[in-house]
Amino acid sequence: MGITLPLLGIAGAMIVGAMSPGPSFVMVARTAVASRSDGLAAALGMGLGGIAFAVAALVGLQAAFLAVPALYLAIKLLGGLYLVYLGIRIWRGAKQPLDVAEAQAPSGNRQHGRRALLLGLATQISNPKTAVVYASIFAAFLPRDVPLSLALALPVVIFCIETGWYAIVALALSSAAPRSAYLRYKTWIDRAAGGIMALLGAKLLSAAREV
Predict the structure, then answer these.
(1) Does residue 1 register a pLDDT over 60?
(2) Is 144 part of a structural domain of the chain?
(3) Percentage with pLDDT > 70 across the chain
(4) 139-164 confidence digits (pLDDT tens)
(5) Which domain covers residue 188, as residue numbers?
(6) Which residues lie below 8 Å from residue 43, measured CB to CB, with a gap of 6+?
(7) 52-63, pLDDT tens digit by residue?
(8) CB atoms closer than 10 angstroms to residue 16
(9) At what angle do helices 36-67 and 110-125 cross, to 10 degrees?
(10) Would you give the end-to-end CA distance of the chain in angstroms?
(11) Residue 1, domain member (yes or no)
(12) Is 19 domain-assigned?
């Protein structure tokens, strides 16, 4: 039970965060419209980028907690506040149209797949907002002393979440009917994601008061 709750908390928040449309979503969607296989390669790149962020967040936060124990509460509060802010931003931007206009590109092959993978990785790790989201979620849910089992499990879970979600995006948006259905209900999907994210942040703020 020691690692179950923080692992489930981080996984839940990361799922909601991954589902929120942003540069990574648009990149995978555009790639998948042109080629399903390239879209799946881009999804793999997103997963590799997620591992990099997870390791960086774990190492950085652990170092900070060890150096300044009082920082644990402060970072936990800031993480909760940022999740509330992010949820509000997602909700308010729900009506903004998402441009996934079809791109005329050659069908995927091994070279194009490698390029799509690297583009997905670059898109993921070059987004500073993603780094802040990872740090905020990890800070909010991690225990003060992170067990080795949790530290080893988190990158694997993050990889599965990022790759799995963007693989679903690639498979769905490479077909006309699912793509049009998503765009039709985008407002409600985004509002649900924003509301869940804000509630997670509020719950973490409440829990932080008891630390």
Answers:
(1) no
(2) yes
(3) 77
(4) 788 887 888 898 899 999 999 999 99
(5) 9-208
(6) 28, 120, 162, 163, 165, 166, 167, 169, 170
(7) 888 888 887 666
(8) 22
(9) 30
(10) 19
(11) no
(12) yes
This prediction's pTM: 0.69
- Nearby residues of 207 by Cβ (< 8 Å), 6 or more positions away: none
From CA 147, how far away is CA 124, in angstroms rounded?
Answer: 27
Q: Is the CB of residue 161 less than 8 Å from the CB of residue 50?
A: yes
Mean pLDDT of all residues in 61-75: 64
SS3 (DSSP) at 115? helix
Report how far residue 76's alpha carbon sits from residue 73's, in angstroms, rounded to the nearest whole number.
5
Q: Is 134 part of a structural domain of the chain?
A: yes
Q: CB-based burial of residue 157 (10 Å sphere; 0-12 exposed, 13-18 middle, 19+ buried)?
A: middle
Q: How far apart are CA 106 and CA 31, in angstroms?
A: 11
Looking at the chain, which runs of residues are DSSP E strands? none
Rg (CA), the chain: 18
Rounded CA-CA distance 96/63 in Å is 39
Query: Domain total for the chain?
Result: 1
Please choose, from the candidates 137, 31, 42, 133, the residue with its C-alpha nearest in 3D space to the C-alpha of residue 90: 133
pLDDT of residue 75: 65
For residues 30 and 88, the model is more confident at 88
- Between these two residues, 1 and 181, which has the higher pLDDT value? 181
